Structure formats: structure tokens, C-alpha cells
């Protein structure tokens, strides 16, 4: 599969400051775009404040579909969230590549970190500033993209 879409995961309902979280997710989407990757932002489709008439079932099915059909999930884990934990559990069980991000020295659930370490498809990064996040995530997306291209080439030549 070629790298073409990232699902941006992070707290919405449980966010301490929903608007600043949306700003962070949009910033991550911009980094994705700069690196040739489309981004799916759940809050643009199933926002917990604007889209309150969308049922729980609809939210789950829409976001689940988008997540499992993405090449990569980028997840902010700097704040606890039941939804993010569920998304990451699904990704680990389905071997969907994950990038987790959080601020340096941010406390993150030990259970979650242990689960993520059980997968070979997880890359975790910490950052101190938006500039550092942009550089680290951009570098990783370039690496991941070239890896996916190489895998795609080897699959075509061996098939």
C-alpha cells in the first residue's frame, strides 16, 4: 500500500481545551500535507460540539472505516482519552502503523505504552515545541513514505 492517508487521533470529548486540540490536529494535518499525505481529521466530520445530532453508532462506523483504511494513524497521547485508547488498540490488533506524539516529560498511561511496545508498527516521539514536532514528524513521514514505496516495488517485482 502506498502512503496516501493518515488518520489523526487525539482526545475530543475528554480534551481539557478542545479548541487548542483541534489546532494541534490541524497542525499535524498540515505536516502530513507538506509530506504528500492526506489527513483525515475526525472532528471535521464528527465534531463532538458541532455534530451533536450524529449518533454514537454513526461516529464509530465513520471513524472506524476511515481509520482502518488509512496507511498510518498519528495519535496525540498527551491527554487521557478512552476513544484514543480504543483506536490504538484496534490499530495494534490490525497491524496498522502508528505514530504517537506527546510533549516531552508528559505522563502517559503505562498500560497504553506497554501495549504500544508490543507492536512492531509503532513509532513514538516526544517534542518540546511545534517546530520540533514539525521537524520530527516531517522526517518520519518522509522515511515512512520511502519505506512504503520500497515495499510496494518489492511486492510488484516478486508478484
What does the model show?
- It contains 6 helices and 5 strands.
- The longest helix has 29 residues.
- The chain is globular.
- The chain has one domain: 3-Layer(aba) Sandwich (Rossmann fold), CATH 3.40.50.
- The C terminus is likely disordered.
- With 159 residues, it is α/β, with parallel strands linked by helices.
- DSSP strand count: 5
Query: If helices are DSSP runs of H or I spanning 4 or more residues, what is the number of helices?
Result: 6
Please state the overall shape, judged from the principal axes of the Cα atoms. globular
Helix % is 40-55%
Summarize it.
The chain has 159 residues and is an alpha/beta fold. The protein is built from six helices and five strands, in the order E-H-E-H-H-E-H-E-H-E-H.
What's the SSE blueprint?
Blueprint: E1 5-9, H1 18-34, E2 38-40, H2 43-46, H3 56-68, E3 72-76, H4 82-93, E4 98-103, H5 110-117, E5 122-127, H6 130-158
Parallel strand pairs: 1-2, 1-3, 3-4, 4-5
Helix pairs in contact: 1-6
Keywords for this entry:
6 helices; Rossmann fold; 159 residues; alpha/beta; 52% helix
